[in-house]
Amino acid sequence: MRSLLRAVGLTMPLMIAPLLTAPALTLPVLALPLLALAACSEEGPAEKTGKAVDDAAQRLKDAVVPPGPGEKAGRAVDKAVQ
Question: Who's near 37: CB < 8 A, 6+ residues apart?
Fold first, then answer.
């Protein structure tokens, strides 16, 4: 691959060159970020507690400063998407 690029006068970026020369590492390096995102599908107790605290803080804020019509519409859209 490098020789072909050199023949036409192009150079390979330094970050990509090792991946193309070591095919056994290419798939794990590219798949690792996807696996990291897919691994956290269930909520743990700390995340549930954090959401409860966030909801309580939002209710307190709404009691002090009521939300306007735009904010209410935005919240409805957020709930529909979740």
Answer: none
